[in-house]
């Protein structure tokens, strides 16, 4: 059986989130970091293939080229239906990359229309009348207004998408969704007849997502957060498009040494770092010091630690401190300095014998995963909604790694993560 759904995620935490939610149905999900070098014809493909890219904040042309390459791989692997996964807080800039990539994918596969549904009710993301809420706050009043790379200053998804695309944008609202899949399909057809290519679909609860998945599972391209994809495996199983359930392999053995790397500055990660600091040896990276002196001091600190001691290295900082650093170094430069320091430190930790890695932050996860040369991940149990443990390899070395979206997880997430790993390994 070939690929039933080919998924492309715009960052690495988002990709593990999506793979984890698809895997809840017990189906086999394969997660590949970057477009695989191996030809799809030679690869052992799963019914659900997820390709993780790091293209959320790169220039539009680069994002389009990378997603086209991923699409090409998935099509050669047999996929005919696709899912474009972006953040449940719609992280993007006025230029993109959510809209331009969706439009490029639509053109490639000949899709006249797609839906946009970043809702993730379990994590407090809801869409009503086209407006995205984070908990009880409109997106633009939530902590996402201060994101270091993609500050979100509007909550209306139609207004956010419009400048990113050339086609017409419309809405299928909650009143329609609540009337069921047939009503939603009729609304999508009505919008299609009016030439609307990009449809924001409201969803405030998991029941809405079930209806949306039912109505849209045959679309050539769906776009959204992970939650709207979650019901798809169940639908494909019911329809007989897939038959196999994943076989649970026994968990690999990994050493006890652990480290947390945090480059996320989200409100939730700040609380999680503060919670974990009294429980682990901690080192705070200062981007201005990194700019002046490089990461040697942090490397020396790490080298002096016992590999078995729980450790956390973080650049996580309050919005006013981030703004100060960005004013001095530039947004991209500050981000790159932190990411490349954490990438180097991840390699050092591995060399030192650390085998359990927790990474907080999407961009940060991309940097750390690439530095460790991880090309594929096997999904295991979720620590929190959208954050699974994964098993992967750095060269020949087996490691356990979890990639936490900045906004996800409880305050005690880092402790919960290692407790969960003890239970499953
Ligand atoms: N103290 C800091 N000052 C400036 N930028 C920072 C600081 N700490 C982290 N960053 C950068 O902020 C970005 C956070 O993005 P990301 O890792 O995707 O986190 P999130 O998942 O919260 O979006 C990264 O590029 C990171 O390198
Ligand atoms: O959909 C989500 O919220 C996450 O899967 C996601 O994309 C995470 O991005 P970061 O917050 O940048 O880690």
In short:
The chain is globular. It is 38% helix and 21% strand. A hairpin with a 2-residue loop joins strand 6 and strand 7.
Q: Any chance you could write out the topology, listing elements then pairs?
A:
Elements lengths: L4 E5 L2 H12 L5 E5 L14 E5 L7 H17 L5 E4 L12 H12 L4 E4 L7 E4 L2 E4 L2 E2 L18 H5 L6 E5 L1 H4 L3 H13 L2 E6 L4 H11 L4 E4 L7 H8 L18 E5 L4 H10 L4 E4 L2 H7 L2 H8 L7 E4 L4 H11 L1 H21 L4 E5 L1 H10 L4 E9 L2 E8 L2 E8 L8 H12 L1
Parallel strand pairs: 1-3, 1-4, 2-3, 4-11, 5-10, 5-11, 9-10, 12-14, 12-15, 13-14, 15-18
Antiparallel strand pairs: 2-16, 6-7, 7-8, 16-17, 17-18
GO molecular function, one term: kinase activity
EC number: 2.7.1.217
Enzyme class: transferase
Provide a descriptive summary of the structure in words:
With 425 residues, the protein is of the alpha/beta class. The protein folds into two domains: 5-239, Rossmann fold, CATH 3.40.50; 258-424, Molybdenum Cofactor Biosythetic Enzyme, Chain A (3-Layer(aba) Sandwich). Helix content is 38%, strand content 21%. The protein contains 15 helices and 18 strands. It has a 15-stranded mixed sheet, with helices on both faces. The chain has a three-stranded antiparallel sheet with strand order 6-7-8, with no helix packed on it. A hairpin with a 2-residue loop joins strand 7 (131-134) and strand 8. Helix 13 (331-351) packs across helix 14. It is globular. Keywords: ATP-binding, Carbohydrate metabolism, Kinase, Nucleotide-binding, Transferase. Catalyzes the ATP-dependent phosphorylation of 3-oxo-tetronate to 3-oxo-tetronate 4-phosphate.
């Amino acid at each position: 059986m070939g690929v039933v759904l080919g998924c492309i995620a715009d960052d690495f935490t988002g990709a593990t989130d999506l793979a984890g939610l698809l895997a809840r149905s017990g189906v086999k999900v394969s997660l590949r970091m970057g477009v695989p070098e191996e030809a799809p014809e030679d690869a052992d493909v799963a019914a659900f293939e997820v390709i993780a890219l790091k293209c959320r904040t790169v220039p539009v042309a680069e994002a389009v080229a990378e997603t086209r390459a991923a699409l090409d791989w998935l099509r050669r692997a047999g996929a005919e239906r696709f899912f474009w996964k972006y953040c449940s807080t719609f992280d993007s800039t006025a230029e993109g990359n959510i809209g331009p990539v969706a439009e490029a994918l639509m053109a490639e596969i000949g899709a006249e229309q797609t839906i946009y549904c970043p809702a993730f009710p379990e994590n407090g993301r809801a869409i009503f009348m086209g407006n995205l809420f984070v908990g009880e706050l409109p997106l633009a009043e939530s902590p996402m207004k201060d994101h270091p790379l993609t500050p979100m200053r509007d909550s209306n998804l139609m207004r956010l998408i419009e400048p990113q695309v050339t086609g017409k944008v419309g809405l299928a609202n909650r009143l329609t969704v609540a009337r069921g899949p047939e009503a939603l399909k009729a609304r999508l057809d009505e919008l299609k007849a009016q030439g609307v290519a990009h449809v924001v679909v409201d969803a405030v609860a998991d029941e809405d997502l079930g209806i949306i998945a039912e109505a849209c599972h045959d679309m050539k391209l769906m776009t959204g957060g992970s939650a709207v994809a979650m019901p798809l495996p169940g639908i494909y199983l019911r329809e007989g498009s897939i038959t196999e359930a994943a076989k649970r392999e026994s968990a690999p053995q990994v050493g006890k040494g652990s480290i947390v790397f945090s480059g996320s500055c989200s409100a939730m990660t700040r609380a999680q770092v503060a919670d974990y600091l009294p429980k682990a040896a901690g080192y705070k990276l200062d981007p201005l010091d990194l700019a002046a002196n490089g990461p040697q001091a942090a490397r020396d600190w790490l080298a002096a630690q016992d590999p078995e001691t729980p450790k956390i290295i973080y650049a996580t900082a309050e919005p006013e401190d981030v703004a100060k650093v960005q004013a001095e170094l530039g947004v991209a430069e500050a981000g790159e300095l932190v990411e490349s320091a954490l990438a180097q430190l991840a390699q050092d930790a591995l060399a030192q014998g650390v085998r359990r890695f927790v990474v907080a932050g999407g961009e940060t996860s991309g940097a750390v995963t690439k530095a460790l040369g991880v090309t594929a991940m096997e999904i295991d149990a979720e620590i929190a909604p959208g954050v699974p443990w994964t098993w992967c390899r750095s060269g020949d070395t087996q490691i356990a790694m979890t990639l936490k979206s900045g906004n996800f997880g409880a305050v005690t997430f880092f402790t919960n993560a290692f407790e969960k790993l003890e239970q499953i390994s």
